[in-house]
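TL;DR need structure tokens for one chain.
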Amino acid sequence: MGTFTKSFGAAGGYIAGTKALIDRLRVHGHSGAYAEAMTPPVLTQVVASMASIMGITPLVETNSRVSSAPPMLQEESHPGPAPASALPQWITLPPSLASGTEGASRLRRLAFNSRYLHNGLIKLGFITYGHPASPIVPLLLFNPGKMNMFHQMMKDRQTPIIVVVVAYPATPLVTSRVRFCVSAAHTKEDVDCVLRACDEIGDVLDLKHGIASKERWGIDEVVRRAVELGAA
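>> reply
TL;DR here they are.
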């Protein structure tokens, strides 16, 4: 199961599985019976985004027809690039996207930003959930009464930071949290700004209940060793 909103800048989502599972969901799932099909512009955005991430196999001329690279080459380079035949004829990508170079660059930046923020928060003493490589970084606030205060203090900074707080019933009552969503468009300086804000507000609201103090790093050390944290 996945979403097309955050990752692809589109709308809706998907579920992958066996034919029996998908058929059952279509027949018995309430969303399948009452939902409408995705619109062509949304589908175009999803397909173009996936193609820019994977890259497209260049078309090669043959004696009888134009085709994409041999299947064996595609299998060896799985999960990409995608065969050109998988793209509708009415979608034309710029060379930088079709080659996959820009997509690969953005993936590297996103991976660094995600790991740097996740591991940096842990080194500062916070408790986080999720995989270090996930661009959605939940930071535990625990006390529901601290959620609005955390949100307000982040928003009122000289450089306002807008965060999403999540509480019961979306989460258990004692695991209220704030979710940071990073992207490839964020720079290291942006993540530094978020870490410094969390460090200051975390002290005020008493949110650092993670690793022992002797294992913690100061914010200056976290920023200085960003490459190490981003590669961890």
